[in-house]
Amino acid sequence: MSRRTGGVTALVILALLAAACSGGGGGGAGPGGGVTVTLDTDHFTMRGDEGTSLSATVTASVSGQTSASIRVSAVDQGEAIAGAQVEVMETQARLWISSKSSLAPGTYAGTLAVNVCYDAGCSSPVRGSPFRLQYTVEVLPILKVAPDQVALSAVSGSPASAPVAVQLPYGATSFRVSGLPSWLRVADETASGFTLVAASVPAGAYDAYLYVAAGGSQRTLRVTYSVTEAPGGRHDLSLDTSSLALTTTEGADASAHVGVTPPSWNPPLTTSVSYGSGASGWLGVTPTDGGLDLRADAGALSQGSYTAWLYVRGDGFTTGRSVTVTLTVGPGLLKPQDQALTLTATSVPADLLGSVPVTMAGGPARAWTAATDAAWLTLDAGTGWTGTPLGFRVTPEALQSVENGSTQVATVRVAADPPSITPVQFKVTLSKRLPEVRSLGPGVILAGRAHRVLARGVGFDGLADVAAGITVEGLTGVGVTRVSDTEVALDVPAAPAGEYAISASNALGSPTAAAALHVVDAPTLAYARVQTSGRKRQLIYDPRHQALWASMPGVAVRVGYAGGAWTAASQAIADLRDLALTPDAGAVIAVSWSGKLRLLDPVTLTEQATYDRGGALGPASLRPDGVAVTNDGRVWLPFGDTGIDDLGFFDLARRTFSNTGLNFYEGPWLAVSGNGERLMVDGRTGRMHLDGADGTLKDGGFYFEGNFGIDEVGSRFVTVSYSEAALWDASFAFVGRLWLPDSYTKYTGGTTIAATVSPDGSRAYVLSYSIGSLDLPRVWVFDSTAAVSGDPPLLGYFQLPEYPTVRSGFTIQSREAVMAMTPDATTLFIAGDDAVMVVPVPSTLTAP
Question: Is 831 helix (H, G, I), strand (E, B) or coil?
Answer without folding.
Answer: strand
